[in-house]
Amino acid sequence: MDGRAPLVTPGFLPLQQLVLDPGDELAAVDEPELGTDPAFLMAFVPLRSYQRLAKLDLSALTSSIVRNPGVMEQRVLVRPLFEDRYIVIDGMWHVAALRKLVEDTGEMGVDLPDDVQALAQACPVRMIAPDTDPAFVLSLLDAPRDSSDQWYLGQRDRLLRQLAQCGRHRSTYDVAVATGGSRAAMRKYHAYRALEQFLQQHPLLPADAARVFPFFHVAMARTVVRSWLDWDDHLCEFLDDEALEVFYRLLLPDVDLHGRPVRACITSIEEVVHLCDVLETPVARRALVERGATLAEAMRVVEDNSNDELMARVSEAIDSIRWDQQRFRNRF
Q1: Whether residues 157 and 82 fall in one domain
Q2: Which DSSP string do the residues of 94-157 spell out, in sequence order?
Q3: Are residues 140 and 203 in the same domain?
Q4: Residues 265 and 254 placed together within one structural domain of the fold
Q5: Same domain for 122 and 183?
Q6: If you write DSSP's letter for every residue of 168-230 in order, what string do you get?
Q7: What is the pLDDT of residues 9-35, one digit of tens each?
Q8: How many structural domains comprise the chain?
């Protein structure tokens, strides 16, 4: 280890120290040129955020917490805000549900089970160090419960912007220790590092970066893609610039000779699988890499090659049958 703080520190915090800010609106506190009142933002944003979350149906989650308080374990991810306050990066629904339980039962004069009341005084959290690699933090996030409203994704989008702007990285050993040696967790981290490399060459809005991330995640699980792009596990980046240029071409929209927009070649997981088929077929791979074919054109080469091979096998089988017929014709 290098003596720095661990990437993730488990701990317990009172509910009142957990600040809800799904939309990352408190980022304005660090931008005095906007003319906002930091004290007003600190008082107003967390309250309004909780009220907005509490208006939604949290009944299933509150019931789950009452039945099994252990569901709060490993759910809440936080980063330091100031003094003794922490921004909730992930787990906002669990924090909102727990707070709603505490406030609603208090108003109704109903007692919560002791172990649920204890959560309000000591909620289990995972604390992220201020200088933590954004790719690592992103790899810890659960899939968003609601991705239709960008407000809920503010903390994720903040991390995606950081991913494109800086390279605060820790050793792969540190990351492996923090993920408990999980291969799936490490693959997700590697996918975000690959996305970081892409964003630093081709900046995208956070929503667009999130849209292409699954393609990197699937690609990192395919040996043929990792080998083609020459992925280095230690450096956490692709090393073959020429192959990388082809791969990025497939991920980005383009325009045709008449200036009309052309969709990206890869817009779905299925098309990443098609890319693997192309890379495993030499003639199709040459068409993609050397002749600048689109993925669809290269796939047609794969299909034609498969048909040619099938026809060759059928022809060979027919020839074999005919030869056998001639050979044994006079024996029966």
Answers
A1: no
A2: HHHHHHHHHHHHHHHTPPPPHHHHHHHHSEEEEEEPTT--HHHHHHHPPPPS--SSGGGGHHHH
A3: yes
A4: yes
A5: no
A6: ----HHHHHHHTTT-HHHHHHHHHHHHHHHHHHHS---HHHHHHHHHHHHHHTT-HHHHHHHT
A7: 999 999 999 999 999 999 887 776 666
A8: 2
